[in-house]
TrEMBL record:
Protein name as catalogued: DUF3820 family protein
Biological source species: Rubritalea squalenifaciens DSM 18772
Pfam families the record matches: QSregVF_b
Length: 105
């Protein structure tokens, strides 16, 4: 789908679909980020690049991930900010750090 050929309502529906889709499997899936995985709009660009090189999943998920890749690739990640704000902010994908330290003497 070429963004120059998309009308406003179709683009709104596309953004709505992206905002409501979570990664259903893999490193950013529900197993590591319960309950539903990381929203695809918050996936790191490197992860999306990996899929670009090896092939996006089949079906609607793959189409949406490819759109996210293209949008982030042209530097328009801020396009997702209203969606993130409506859902409480960006999902952090950083692992929690240890809060206590044990220093040997």
């Amino acid at each position: 789908m070429d963004f120059t050929e998309i009308d406003r309502d179709d683009f709104r529906r596309l953004l709505n679909d992206i905002g409501n889709t979570h990664m259903p499997f893999g490193k950013f899936g529900p197993g590591n980020y319960p309950p539903s995985g990381v929203p695809i709009m918050d996936l790191p660009p490197e992860y999306l690049m990996w899929f670009k090189e090896r092939g996006f999943p089949k079906g609607r998920l793959g189409e949406l991930m490819e759109m996210v890749y293209e949008i982030k690739g042209v530097g328009m990640d801020s396009l997702f900010d209203p969606l993130r704000q409506a859902k409480g902010g960006r999902v952090s994908i950083r692992k929690a750090r240890k809060k206590s330290f044990d220093f040997d003497e």
